[in-house]
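Box S1 | Example of a co-folding query
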Amino acid sequence: MRKSSVRRACAALAAVTSLTLAATACGGTTKKDVSEENASAASDAKANPDAELKKGLTVGFLPKQVNNPYFTSADKGGEAAVKELGSSYKEVGPSSATDTAGQVNYVNTLTQQQVDAMAVSAQDPGALCTALKQAMKNDIKVVTYDSDTKTDCRNAFVSQAGAEDLGRTEVQLLAEQIGYKGEFAILSAAQTATNQNTWIDFMKDELKDPKYKDMKLVKVAYGDDDAQKSFQQTQGLLQEYPDLKGIISPTTVGIKAAAQYLSGSKYKGKVKLTGLGTPNDMRKYIKNGTVDAFELWDPAKLGELAARTAVALVSGQITGKEGETFTAGDMGEYTIGKDGVISLGKPTVFDEKNIDQFDF
Ligand code: RAM
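Box S1 (continued) | Returned holo structure for alpha-L-rhamnopyranose
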């Protein structure tokens, strides 16, 4: 084998096995030549809040889906923060929100490229675990953002807002719009998505309150964060449930497609739609009376916080344990909560009064 092909074969081996093993087999060492014992020792390391933020790092972002405007905004926020901190940014990711195998490959690619940290929005809670653990064994810090994996498969999760808050407030928003009465459905993203499934569980829990006794959740449909599929699912819901009074879509792709369908149909303004959308996608549906109110956080801020968390982890300011604190630049101080969760803050509710104040 020529030297370059040996190098390539070794790099590929490193991505799927342990780098230590690959380094031995290939007769060399890598900067991430860490044994399993060292890796677990690293996770027991103590945080040093006074540590200097390291520069010259490489931070990789791996969203659920690259051609989704929500992730374009989130990752732009990440990119700006990584660059401001003197490090290099890269983004890789699948174009479909249901390409779990693709996401696993991208984790392996980032590991193989020996990035210092990766920020990942998981399509599926368990599927990425082996690959992410492999990354952590090789001394790569793993931050999930937007959609989490299992807690032992990453160092920290940067959450957009309290999951409980999001689930409950979406039901409250719809209930107000339909007068606490009638059938409604949920139009979600992928069936495996950790974030949407967590919010839906809280929605179901919220519905147990007797004040919702006249509201009935008839179906959870999945549009897979695909515009066309989400549009068709909305159409299908209205055919199947002609008395439907409302839809909650906790996905920016789903709510936009549902609004598009409703706005061109006889249901416009009659079937209420709420959930999570971006102001720029939803402005016209607020203005034309299809949608009264919906909510979201600022995706760019979420990406920024993920980037700052990644760099703080690599620098040793935090290790991901509950109670540790760090300063995320101008965003201020954050404290790591239970299970390594860092929460961005409260979501914003958008309606015709405030929607023009936002541009994302
Ligand atoms: C979609 C994705 C993302 C989710 C937003 C609200 O863009 O499913 O994971 O957080 O909607």
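The CA atoms of residues 312 and 318 lie 6 Å apart. The pocket of alpha-L-rhamnopyranose is lined by residues 64, 68, 70, 121, 146-147, 189, 195, 225, 251-253, 276 (CB under 6 Å).
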